[in-house]
């Protein structure tokens, strides 16, 4: 390659954020490295565009697609490109209108150019484009590019550490207190670097949010779209913007959790859950916190982040009035429900304990004592006419095959089921909070929150169980769940616990050990370590299994891409024909039948391969990013 080609290639890779570089002060050379994380995000292009289309509309999707294709772009260049596109569309619309009687048809993508020209461009004007960019910036879907954008996290950390040491610790670090102070100042410096990309959003917030501007416009009686666009401030044409993939991942995680809730509860409860997630993650910048940057933040900020919750009224105001909340709720009389158990408030996430010494202040009961009192008085808090269901475990076997069927009392009074809309919403929220997966938590009176760490752990286990079931069958999944519940089990005791014959059990366990779902540990009885006298303990390491599954997903995805590349080489002559300007968009009319059939088969194979890659990306997202 010539130096000119090399510089051009580096510039293109940097523009698409596929290459990172670092220049030491006073150095003559720059050090480059590939940005593999961003390169993988290209796989999610279709999902991001679909999410933007659902949340912000088709015009915002068109702008995001332009940013994905052009990479980091100056606003003036983006405006100029859309001006040319709008002018060409207007000219083409005029030509189509003049030649409509003659039935002329021009060439376009997939043969739909005639229909596209009738509908016109998605972005109508530069003011419309400015309004769309403002909305995406306020939603943090678009970030500002600054100098540190092109450096890796390791180089940024090293630079900040050097600046902090030179400014605050020129004589070195002495003592634990100085070490803690150093970590806090480094975290503060890293947060300043991270906040540089939000400078454009802060400027827009000074003029009020987009929702506030629309309310002002509605109060003034202006409902025209042009007035709505003119309310947005003009952006700096020299500002360089790019797509914020961290924020896109937050919305993609919400969509995945809503799908998870749909599989368990149904559409109505999942819709309520989607509104809850949207309100909770409105200002959430990324899925996973950064331990290096979160050190030393103000305690008030940390407490506020820990108390991030929404009220029932906020959720109710965000719900569509057309949604029937009475669907998806079981039928039960009031006297058959324990009010204390249903309305129990959980102040802390699952597994988090509070010291009694910290809670006992001024004679108040501790959190543990409150829980004990609540548990002990649950029976007294039942309604006076509550009747416990009568079940037996004898010969009649109510808990057997016939006793597990859910039966609703259809003769119950209709007035007991006709709840108002807020009460119906609470039923859905309580259903989410009482689930085994901990979809939501009732953290206060009419307050709700979501603990993402235990929830994503449950989702990862669900994905792992699904893979185990497809690979080793229901029997293998049952053995894995037994090992999770019991811990390490001796191979001699495992047949009795699993109620399986020893040869079948050994064959199934070896099969799952090869797949990486279970593991075995040899424990010698004495110092001689005789194999015949050793214990062999089977166990299930979920983290190790998830790492193995993630590695397998990467390899499968690479294999799919290699298969697609081999198909493209095989059908190279047909694909080169479709690139001709007189064939593109009219393949069926211009190509011979044999060539068109080969082209159709290739498109079908390509569609299936891309669908498989998307399913693998769903799995990778759950295991690594969410």
From TrEMBL:
Residues 390-403 have a biased composition (Low complexity). Residues 288-313, 360-422 are annotated as: Disordered. Residues 132-459 form the RNA polymerase III Rpc82 C -terminal domain. Its main location: nucleus. GO terms for cellular component: RNA polymerase III complex. It is found in: Nucleus. InterPro entries: POLR3C_WHD, RNA_pol_III_Rpc82_C, RPC3, WH-like_DNA-bd_sf. It holds the Pfam family WHD_POLR3C. It comes from the Eukaryota. The keyword Magnesium does not apply. Keywords: DNA-directed RNA polymerase, Nucleus, Transcription. One of its GO terms (molecular function) is single-stranded DNA binding. One of its GO terms (biological process) is DNA-templated transcription. Residues 360-383 have a biased composition (Acidic residues). Residues 406-420 have a biased composition (Basic and acidic residues). Residues 464-539 form the DNA-directed RNA polymerase III subunit RPC3 winged-helix domain. Component of the RNA polymerase III (Pol III) complex consisting of 17 subunits. Belongs to the RNA polymerase beta chain family. DNA-dependent RNA polymerase catalyzes the transcription of DNA into RNA using the four ribonucleoside triphosphates as substrates. Specific core component of RNA polymerase III which synthesizes small RNAs, such as 5S rRNA and tRNAs. This is DNA-directed RNA polymerase III subunit RPC3. It comes from Parathielavia hyrcaniae.
